[in-house]
Write a structure and sequence with these properties.
Elements lengths: L2 E4 L4 H12 L5 H22 L10 E7 L4 E6 L6 H7 L7 H8 L12 H6 L5 E9 L7 E6 L4 E7 L5 E8 L9 H11 L6 E4 L25 H12 L7 E7 L5 E7 L12 E6 L2 E5 L13 E5 L9 H6 L1 H24 L1 H21 L1 H7 L4 E4 L4 E3 H4 L6 H5 L5 E6 L6 H9 L5 E2 L5 H11 L4 E5 L4 H5 E3 L4 H10 L6 E7 L6 E5 L1 H12 L9 E6 L3 H5 L5 H19 L4 H20 L1
Parallel strand pairs: 2-8, 11-13, 16-17, 16-18, 20-22
Antiparallel strand pairs: 1-6, 2-3, 3-7, 4-5, 4-7, 5-6, 9-10, 10-13, 11-12, 14-15, 14-17, 19-20, 21-22
Helix pairs in contact: 9-10, 10-11, 10-15, 17-20, 20-21
């Protein structure tokens, strides 16, 4: 005999959450319904361990799409429900069936139980006009129950002739949501949300040869000692669809003081100039929560690829909870520590591999240092820079001795370290440095300008970084070669061009002039461009090499020859520094043609 009743909703607490779901990703409903099915099986297994039931059959979850009937069905062979339990767990949305189960069977524990049955079930109304439940309890002599509702204020409940234990939920999909009737769509969602669930999930099964859509025992659940290198690589390919082999990985396997399992992979960098966001998937009891939750995974670790499963983080929880929960903060710190330990271990035990991986690791490590000072303190001794000879130098070797307050007052400055940001564009400067027996560091990634500023901030009395075209005369000059007459020749020839003139005698006599730009002003200009707030003046200086024969010959040349040659020298230096604008290129070609004509006429 059927009867009617009113659905009891704790609207003050629950409706805002349901409304929030209505405006977020609708496909989350499938995770909730399948997770409920998983809970039902887990509960039955717990009772088996207590000897209250004896079920030896294979547990499974079946998902069926029926485009003709416009239904999506999820069925399990778990604990099932009696009519009283349906009334309690379904019609009273605020009540948690999982919490009640754990309270009743404390000695069985709640491991593996997700615990959002009532609320999770109602998420299905985001895509359904009507939902039916067919369920039969594991208890002997209890009749099957049929419940149905359109999600408004009323429901219908009564007996049904279901013969097998478990629960079947039939969702009558709304006309506007018919995409959830397609097998391809549901398969994608099961792969996204349920790929590691602990019980086999079958989609539209046809016979004994059917294969589950999920892996019930993912690699991260195994002991690291039982995992092979090939298994790690295969898991990486299948999980992240990246067919470039990872550099190395960290297998997290912790049970105290919190339960945490997972694998973090260091991928090969796809672009050296940009920060490449990876994908760190967060799970709760093998149920997918989300990607890249920065409250649990430190932001810089999101450059990695990985899977982390932490049962102590609930499926549905607010960001404010995560931000303020001390356990979550401990988990984030532990993950950071394990990553730092892995880098230290690799550097100590296989330095050659570490250096070979550095081009892929550099962006990640530098970003991590900037974002997390504790991480920097742990890894600072294994941060390396490549020099002009291709050797890797630890950052500690690049730092100078800390200058005292007295030395600072006396005008002594921290050690100057030159660096290259583009080996092709700065090739002429590099050549001059090498010929002069000088060295520089290669800092050519997107994050390097920020990182060297960070290192200066951390070591203000030990180092200052100068790009190879900043104050280069100070590094390359042989002796004071100031020549006022030469400077006046260039000032006159370059009148109207915003550039300062300085003369020096450089060690390399083959180069007539080089361009210098103040390190401070150049950084300001780059920062302004980055934040799109206009350009700061570049404060460019042309260093004229008085050791160069062509520069020396200018004094004996005619006025016209001086102007033409001086401008040609200026444009050559400018090309070595940054290249020419279209207007500068036109002027350079015109001057070059004049010089060739004059030379050939002789």
């Amino acid at each position: 005999m059927e009867k009617q009743g009113n659905i009891k909703i704790s609207s003050e607490n629950m409706m805002p959450i349901i409304k929030k779901w209505l405006y977020s990703e609708k496909d989350i409903f499938l995770r909730e319904i399948v997770a409920n099915a998983s809970d039902a099986i887990t509960k039955l297994k717990k009772l088996n361990t207590l000897g209250e039931t004896a079920n030896e059959e294979i547990y499974r979850i079946t998902v069926t799409t029926d485009e003709k009937a416009k239904t999506l069905t999820v069925e399990d062979n778990g604990i099932g429900m009696s009519e009283e339990e349906v009334e309690t767990y379904i019609t009273q949305i605020a009540f948690s069936g999982a919490a009640d189960f754990v309270t009743k069977y404390e000695k069985a524990g709640g491991d593996g139980i997700i615990g959002h049955f009532g609320l999770g079930f109602y998420s299905a109304y985001m895509v359904s006009d009507n939902i039916e439940i067919f369920t039969k309890s594991y208890q002997d002599g209890v009749k099957g129950v049929h419940w149905t509702s359109d999600g408004n204020n009323t429901y219908t409940i009564g007996d049904c002739d279901k013969e097998t234990r478990g629960t079947k939920i039939v969702m009558h999909i709304s006309a506007d949501e018919k995409e959830f009737l397609k097998e391809t769509t549901i398969r994608q969602l099961l792969n996204k949300y349920c790929s590691f669930m602990p019980y086999e999930i079958f989609l539209n099964p046809k016979g004994k040869d059917d294969q589950p859509v999920n892996t019930t025992c993912p690699l991260y659940k195994k002991q690291p000692k039982n995992c092979t290198e090939e298994e790690y690589k295969t898991f990486y390919r299948e999980t992240f669809h990246d067919y470039n082999e990872p550099l190395f990985w960290i297998h997290l396997n912790m049970e105290y003081p919190f339960n945490l399992k997972g694998i973090l992979y260091f991928p090969q960098a796809k672009k050296q100039v940009e920060l490449e966001r990876g994908q760190v998937k967060l799970y709760c009891n093998q149920v997918y929560i989300a990607d890249n939750i920065k409250e649990v995974i430190p932001e810089f670790l999101m450059l990695l690829n990985g899977v982390i499963d932490c049962p102590e983080i609930p499926l549905n929880v607010s960001r404010s909870f995560l931000q303020n929960d001390r356990q979550v903060q401990k988990i984030a710190k532990h993950i950071t520590k394990k990553v730092a330990d892995k880098l230290l271990e690799l550097y100590k035990n296989d330095k050659e591999k570490y250096e070979n991986c550095w081009k892929d690791l550099a962006t990640f490590v530098k970003f991590g240092c900037i974002k997390d000072d504790e991480f920097y303190q742990k890894v600072k001794d294994v941060i390396v820079f490549k020099n002009l000879c291709g050797q890797f130098l630890p950052i500690t070797q690049c730092l100078g001795e800390e200058i005292s307050e007295e030395d600072a007052k006396a005008g002594k400055e921290p050690k100057s370290v030159y660096y290259v940001s583009d080996e092709n564009k700065q090739a002429q400067y590099i050549k001059m440095f090498k010929e002069a027996g000088l060295d520089a560091l290669v800092c050519d990634t997107y994050i390097d300008p920020h990182f060297i500023s960070y290192i200066e901030y951390k070591n203000p009395k030990r180092v200052r970084f100068l790009r190879i075209d900043a104050d280069v005369a100070g590094a390359l000059k042989e002796e004071s070669g100031e020549d006022k007459e030469t400077e006046e020749i260039f000032k006159s020839a370059l009148e109207g061009i915003h550039v300062s003139i300085k003369s020096e005698k450089l060690k390399n006599s083959a180069v007539p002039a080089i361009v210098n730009v103040s390190e401070f002003m150049r950084r300001m200009s780059e920062m302004n461009q980055f934040y799109q707030i206009g350009n700061a003046p570049t404060d460019m200086t042309l260093i004229v090499n008085t050791a160069n024969p062509a520069v020396v010959a200018l004094k004996a040349a005619s006025e016209e020859e001086r102007i033409t040659a001086a401008r040609h020298i200026y444009y050559l230096a400018l090309m070595d520094y940054r290249g020419l604008t279209p207007e500068e290129s036109d002027a350079f070609h015109e001057i070059t043609a004049k010089l060739l004509e004059k030379y050939l006429q002789k």
